[in-house]
Each structure stands twice: as structure tokens, then as C-alpha cells.
Design a protein that fits this description.
This protein has 188 residues and is mainly alpha-helical. It has helices at 11-18, 27-35, 45-53, 58-75, 82-88, 91-106, 116-119, 142-151, 170-183, and strands at residues 2-4, 130-134, 156-160. The chain folds into 2 domains: 2-8 and 113-183, no CATH class; 11-110, no CATH class. It is built from 9 helices and 3 strands.
């Protein structure tokens, strides 16, 4: 199994990216993300976005979707990619992307408890694997990849020193190809 950009949908991960954490590393972009939400509702950004993304006001839906999607499009790679940022802001993409993510995040992934994925990761024991994660991934902090590796110690842990979250970053591509090459000739 080859995994990249580990995200376990833990409350701490959601708060880090959508509330307070990544905001300290990309304050200009976070300010734009916050702008779609009135100051008095910013205590729970995910709930405030969910309210707008599922509301009846089409203009509010689109404004929220664009702000949510552009925040992510701006922060997923170590270096900015204006083309990707613009694509994330396109109405059809932004609405679909933001609604799907926010829906799952608002409902905590429909898990029985916080941290369930990592807690149950010992079930991976005996399965060969590689965990690829960008050292500077603002969306999904590398601490989650490290926590998974500690629960699944036989997996090869491959932090990429010069990458964020995007699978298109050269270091991430290199590690994914290397992992694929490692397993391509394995028998069952």
C-alpha cells in the first residue's frame, strides 16, 4: 500500500488548517479565507462555512466555496502555483470541492470517535507499505504521517524535505515512483 498526504480527519487536524495553525504560516491567504465569514461567526469556521455552503443564497454559496477552495489551492504546495489557485476558484470546481470537504468535516467524517483512523491503524500490521508526506504540508501536518508510522512501523516512512501537500511536487513524485518501482514486481 502506498499512501501520500496522510489525513486522519482528527479534530486537531481540522482546527490546524481551518481555524488556527496554518494561518500563522500563510496569514495573507488565511485573511482572504476568513473574509467570507462575519467576525462574530469565526469561532467555528467549519460550521460557518457549512451554513453558507448549504444555505439557499446562491451568491453566498459561491463566495464561500471560492474562499474555501482558494485557501486550499493556495496552501497545498511549497511554492505558489497561480494556475492551480485560479482553477480552485472556478465556480463549478469550488462549489463541488468545498461542499464535499466541508460536509465531511462538519460531520467529523461520520466516524464513531475522534482519531478512529489512527487508533485502528494497527490493523495494517503485516501489510507492506510506504508513507509519503511533504515536510511542509500545511493542509495535512506531517505529525499525522508520523503518528501513522508509529502505529504501522513496518511501513517505509518517506518525508519529503522540499514539498507541501500537492502530489505534483517533484519530491513527492519521486517518492511515489520509487515506491511503485519497489512493489511493481512483487508476487501477490
Amino acid at each position: 500500500m502506498i499512501l501520500r498526504g496522510i489525513f486522519a480527519l482528527q479534530r486537531s487536524e481540522l482546527l490546524w488548517f481551518y481555524q488556527d495553525g496554518a494561518s500563522h504560516l500563510a496569514p495573507e491567504a488565511f485573511e482572504e479565507y476568513q473574509r467570507a465569514i462575519p467576525a462574530e461567526e469565526r469561532g467555528d469556521m467549519i460550521a460557518a462555512y457549512y451554513k453558507r455552503l448549504t444555505g439557499k443564497d446562491v451568491d453566498a454559496q459561491l463566495a464561500a466555496a471560492r474562499a474555501w477552495s482558494v485557501w486550499e489551492g493556495t496552501t497545498i504546495s511549497l511554492l505558489p502555483d497561480p494556475g492551480r489557485i485560479a482553477a480552485f476558484g472556478e465556480p463549478q470546481y469550488a462549489l463541488a470541492f468545498a461542499r464535499i470537504e466541508c460536509h465531511y468535516f462538519q460531520h467529523r467524517g461520520f466516524f464513531d470517535r475522534d482519531g478512529q483512523l489512527l487508533h485502528d491503524a494497527d490493523r495494517l500490521s503485516g501489510i507492506p507499505g510506504v508513507i509519503v508526506h511533504g515536510r511542509y504540508d500545511l493542509c495535512t501536518p506531517i505529525s499525522t504521517a508520523w503518528a501513522l508510522h508509529k502505529r504501522w512501523s513496518e511501513a517505509d516512512y518517506r518525508p519529503v524535505a522540499d514539498a507541501g501537500h500537492a502530489m505534483t511536487e517533484p519530491g513527492i513524485i519521486h517518492e511515489l515512483v520509487a515506491a511503485t518501482e519497489k512493489y511493481k514486481n512483487r508476487d501477490g
